[in-house]
Amino acid sequence: MPFIVAFGLIGLVMSVLIVANVVSGAVVAGTRRIGVLKSIGFSPGQVVAAYLIQVAVPALAGCAAGVGVGNLLSVPLLGQTAQVYGVGALAVPFWVDLAVPLAMLALTGAAALAPAVRAARLSAVQAIATGRAPRPSGGYAAHRLLGRARLLPRPVTIGLAGPFARPARTVVTLAAIVFGGLAVTFAVGLGTSLDRVEADLSHAAAQPVQVSLPGSGPGGGVSIIKPGSGPGVSPPPLAAQERAVQAALRAQPGTLRYVAEADDQISVLGLADRVSLVGFGGDASWTGYTLITGHWYAEPGQADVNTPFLTATGAAVGDTYTLTAGGRRSHGADRRRDLRPSRRPPGDHRRAAHPGRPGSRPGREPVRRGAQAGR
Amino acid sequence: MANLVQLSDVTKRYDHDGAPAVDHVSLAVAPGEALDVMGPSGSGKSTLLNLVAGLDRPTSGEVRVGEDRVDKLSETGLARFRRRQVGMIFQFFNLLDDMTVADNIALPAQLAGLPAAKTRARVDELLAALRIGPHRDAYPARLSGGERQRVAIARALVNRPALLLADEPTGALDTATGEEIGELLLDLNSSGQTLILVTHNPDLAARYARRVIQLVDGQIASDGSARSRT
Predict the structure, then answer these.
(1) Which listed site, A270, A289, A294, B180, has its alpha carbon 20 to 30 Å from A36?
(2) Do A70 and A189 belong to one domain?
(3) C-beta atoms of A44 and B46 within 8 A
(4) Is the residue at A109 inside a domain?
């Protein structure tokens, strides 16, 4: 939302600057005409009205076209949004179609007013006699200085001194270009940043895999049997299961690295809600978590946390936490690192889930893994 | 007979330190009179005309045209004054190039609030009187200098102003065309139009004005009758 508002504001500012520049240019170009009009009886108010209407007509057409095109373009965008959020049909509110053109017309009129008033105050005598705008108030020093520049061609130095002759117009033009560059930079930077956030949140460096062991289920392999699910059949020990899984992964061509992962909900002293804990059975620094500060945990008693966690606890990297899981408490002087924030709201500390991906569930003792971090 | 134009000790100074463009000038012009203002370049001729037209304000002194105290009018009042009381003719015509001949002539009448039908009738009358009827729908760029000046005269006369001001009306024209325009102005004056004409051409002044004043350095050097017209 803030990004959309920012883009809207940039667009508004640029519209104002462009209108002011255009009308100002029209006043300069139409100086003789203004003098003639005043000589035959145009009042200053009528001169102002003439220039405001000159801008109002294209502004009106532009607003009407903008509302139409905006509504058309909003159909696919709002349709996608409705689908993502699972809500009913979305549309641009009726009041927006009325309020925006009115606001733009008002803004356009305000931008054109200053140069139009300047036109009304032009001396008719000077305008008729000389046929040009009043002599520029500045730029003489720039002309003199640049005139001494021997290394530059004279046409170049004359052009370089030109902007100083009308500093107000130069500033407005410069501001319009600055805002244009700002908008482009903002858009490109925003897009790049969002792409990076998407990649970091999705942990693109690693893919969770589901392993079917040989002899398990239809087509062969060993089944992971739940306790008590079969008459007289005991499930294989967890360690044996893990060894089988790791062997299966190593046997796959193209496997570069692997690490076991498990998650659970734990309690943190001082937080009302439980917190999601993800544990790894080895070095998981390569799995694609992007660190903001600090480094990946390297010793027992260390853990990496995300920004919402630090915000909720009011703590900083290096603080100590007491974790509770399955009735066990673990303490430790943790050197926490700050992970990239989850997509979920700050109150929800679960790691972002990826619908549709198979998960790895090598075992069901996540507490032990979490406790390993706290040992 | 009350004067139509009355200037009382009028001074116009553009620069506080420099010499005044018009220096303590007092002048009266009667209704129906044709006055020629002559002088060398920079003598203040055009400045004097602009003061009478209300295009410029005097530094001191009074300017009266008819019932109006021109130097005291507001900007809106001056605009209204120029619409109704004054018709201006310029050396370089100053027509609006993006409007037709008829539209150029009609513009002051429309500003003055004349109804559309009366405006059209008045425009037709002037087109015929000035012999530019065939160019009604043409644009000024397509006309000769003489034709453009006729359009400018028609525009100046559309609201039947009490006073016609002409600043070097033949300055941009060849001799023959200049004489045509001069004759036109003479005819207008003969029918009662008050005319103040600025020119540096003594022949033009002698032929088309009854009274000539000489301006030198912003002051009236002489004010007398012109040589009789031939």
Answers:
(1) B180
(2) yes
(3) no
(4) yes
Distance from CA of A50 to the nearest CA of B (A): 13
- Where do the H-state alpha helices sit in chain A? 2-29, 31-39, 44-85, 94-120, 124-130, 140-147, 154-165, 167-201, 238-251, 307-313, 366-374
**The most confident of A45-49, A316-320, B65-69, by mean pLDDT:** B65-69
**Farthest CA pair distance, chain B:** 53
Give chain A positions within 8 Å (CB) of B111. Answer: 40-42, 46
The whole-angstrom distance between residue A147's C-alpha and the CA centroid of its chain comes to: 47
Coil, helix or strand at residue A358: coil
Q: Which two tokens stand for residue A237?
A: 């020990």
Q: Are residues A120 and A27 in the same domain?
A: yes
A129 and A48 belong to one structural domain:
yes
**A307 and A175 part of one domain:** no
Mean pLDDT calculated for residue range B149-170? 94
In a domain, A366, yes or no: yes
Residues with Cβ within 8 Å of residue A207, at least 6 apart in sequence: A357
Q: Select from A45, A46, A125 the Cβ nearest to the Cβ of B55.
A: A125
Please check whether residue B57 touches A, CB under 8 A. no
Which residues of chain A neighbour B46 with C-beta distances below 8 Å? 129
In this prediction the pTM is: 0.65
CB contact under 8 A, A44 and B79: yes
Residues of A in contact with B88 (CB under 8 A): 39-40
Contacting B residues, span 197-226, partner chain A, CB-CB under 8 Å: none
pLDDT of residue A1: 67
**B182-215 pLDDT, tens digit each:** 888 888 999 999 999 998 777 777 777 678 999 9
Most confident of A251-255, A279-283, A292-296, B110-114: B110-114
Residues of B within 8 A of A130 (CB-CB) are none
Q: How far apart are CA B130 and CA B95, in angstroms?
A: 16
User: Taking CB atoms and an 8 Å cutoff, what residues of chain B touch A39?
Assistant: 53, 55, 82, 88, 90, 94
Residues A188 and A48 in one domain: yes
Question: How far is Cα A248 from Cα A243, in angstroms, rounded to an integer?
Answer: 9
Which residues of chain A make contact with B168, given a CB cutoff of 8 A?
none
Selection from B108, B165, B156 nearest residue B130 by Cα = B156
**Which of A33, A44, A45 comes nearest B96 by C-beta?**
A33
Instruction: Give the β-pairing of B68-69 and B60-65.
Output: antiparallel
Across the interface, of B50, B56, B107, the residue whose CB is closest to A40 is B107
pLDDT at A17 over 80: yes
Range of the domain at A317: 261-353+361-374
Computed over every residue of chain A, the mean pLDDT equals 73
B104 at A interface, C-beta within 8 A = no
Indicate whether A218 belongs to any domain. Answer: no
C-alpha distance from A147 to closest chain B C-alpha (Å): 29
With an 8 Å Cβ cutoff, are B75 and A43 in contact? yes
Residues A190 and A326 in one domain: no
Number of structural domains, chain A? 2
A18 and A115, same domain (yes or no): yes
| B1-85+161-230 CATH fold | Rossmann fold (3.40.50)
Q: Is residue A147 part of a domain?
A: no
Short-list B11, B4, B199, CA closest to B90: B199
